[in-house]
Amino acid sequence: MRILIVSDAWYPQVNGVVRTLETVRSELGEMGHDVHIISPDQFRTIPCPTYPEIRLALFAKRKLARMIDALQPVAIHIATEGPLGQAARAYCLKRELPFSSAYHARFPEYLHARTRLPLSISYRGMRRFHNKSQSVMVATESLREELADRGFNRLNIWSRGVDLNLFKPRPDASFGDFPKPHWLFVGRVAVEKNIGHFLDLDLPGTKFVVGDGPQLAELKSKYPNAQFLGKKVGEELAVCFASADVFVFPSKTDTFGLVILEALASGTPVAVFPVQGPADIVRGTKAGAIDADLRKAAMAALELDGKDARALAEQYSWRNSASQFLHNLAPFSGGFDGAAAKRLAVEDITEAKEPAIVMPAQ
């Protein structure tokens, strides 16, 4: 099946959404499906206000329509609610094509943290965006229940996986001679991740932060005793996870927390708040500690066995995640209407004054 994923989050960003989409695309390819990505790097972009690492596509509607018309997918998945997601949604609604979408991030909470915009306003916008979708994919059962209570429809579970070959216990891994215990956070260095709360905790030893983002300079200045290691990927990232005694995840806005699985797979117990997503992963296990007092959770996690953390991670498979994604799609009942698409493409190209688009190789 030819599947199109439209995402405002893509490389060079490195985050859970990007890694999830890339890995699921690879898994689906191995399963025999033809998966294409439309992402900001294929458009003219501007930096996102307050977050310049994120690029926002400009004037995407017509170009995106021509790209979809040329591709003729059998299923369209809209991964994000940004400019490309909005353009893809408009395309599907105009042509009366079904589509699926995903609730990857607590966008209303992000906006509230940055701008103090009331949650009621942003949730109204999110409902409007997703309730035209035939399938809204969410990472956990508790998130599905919360969104259902907020008026979201057609919610389906799409869990996550972890690369157990890359993220694994490494007995020789170490951050060096810094005082122990070693506490680790990995993720975007941004206000919604609540990293300052982690760095404020009265914990013995040394705190390490891996990642980049708009709050990095501020936190480095405010917390000179913490070790900021910058962005890490691949083997370097895996070694960082395996070097820590405890992975501390202070975010209260993540819908899942892929980095939590990567820490667990590395044999590193985790400490989290009792919030949906992170707590769902470790609740009822010996792999992590949950407490409204994150210091108490961190100290409790220090006493846990890394073997239990690894055992929990081994229950998560990217192949299962890809299968869930596939099951949750909304394929067109009769396939793509090529004749109608061709007429629409001619209309759009005539109206636009841009050159024809050649789909890049994926």
Order of helices and strands: EHEEEHEHEHHEHEEHEHEHEHEHEHHHH
Helix fraction bin: 40-55%
Please give the order of strands in the largest beta sheet: 2-1-5-6-7-8
Number of strands: 14
Short description:
With 362 residues, the chain is of the alpha/beta class. The protein has helices spanning 16-30, 60-71, 83-95, 107-115, 119-130, 141-149, 195-200, 216-222, 234-243, 258-265, 278-282, 294-301, 306-313, 318-328, 338-351, and strands spanning 2-6, 34-38, 45-48, 51-57, 75-78, 100-102, 135-138, 155-157, 182-186, 206-210, 227-230, 246-249, 270-272, 288-290. The protein contains 15 helices and 14 strands.
Question: What can you see in these coordinates?
Answer:
This protein is of the alpha/beta class. The chain contains 15 helices and 14 strands. The strands form 3 sheets. A 6-stranded parallel beta sheet has the order 2-1-5-6-7-8, sandwiched between helices. Strands 11-10-9-12-13-14 form a 6-stranded parallel beta sheet, sandwiched between helices. α7 links the parallel β9 and β10 (206-210). α1 (16-30) packs across α14, α2 runs antiparallel to α15 and α10 (258-265) packs across α13. The radius of gyration is 21 Å and the shape is globular. The model is unreliable at 338-362 (pLDDT under 50).
Quickly list its features.
362 residues, alpha/beta, six-stranded parallel beta sheet, 41% helix, globular
Helix and strand arrangement:
Elements: E1 2-6, H1 16-30, E2 34-38, E3 45-48, E4 51-57, H2 60-71, E5 75-78, H3 83-95, E6 100-102, H4 107-115, H5 119-130, E7 135-138, H6 141-149, E8 155-157, E9 182-186, H7 195-200, E10 206-210, H8 216-222, E11 227-230, H9 234-243, E12 246-249, H10 258-265, E13 270-272, H11 278-282, E14 288-290, H12 294-301, H13 306-313, H14 318-328, H15 338-351
Parallel strand pairs: 1-2, 1-5, 5-6, 6-7, 7-8, 9-10, 9-12, 10-11, 12-13, 13-14
Antiparallel strand pairs: 3-4
Helix pairs in contact: 1-14, 2-3, 2-15, 4-5, 10-13
